Amino acid sequence: MKTKTAWFTALLLFLVFSSSSTVAVDQSGCLTCHTNEKIIKMLYKPPATGPSEGEG
Q: Does residue 36 surpass a pLDDT of 70?
């Protein structure tokens, strides 16, 4: 029983420390792109709007 508890504890600690919040610090991660205003502005393409009837 002690062996199962030790393995369960080890597995639990591994999952906690390898969670996405600690892995997201990586430079190639999502936070680098999604929090960089320069990259967001470079990738944003405004929708094309054509002439619309009945406005004005």
A: yes
Residue that is written with structure tokens 């009837």 in the block: 53
Cα distance between residue 22 and residue 11, in whole Å:
16
% of the chain exceeding 90 in pLDDT? 5
Tell me the Cα Rg of the chain. 24
Give the distance, in angstroms, between the CA of residue 23 and the centroid of all CA atoms in the same chain.
Answer: 10
d(CA 11, CA 16): 9
2: which 2 tokens? 């002690």
Dist. CA 23–CA 18, nearest whole Å: 7
41, 33 Cβ separation under 8 angstroms: no
Determine the average pLDDT of the residues in 20-35. Answer: 65
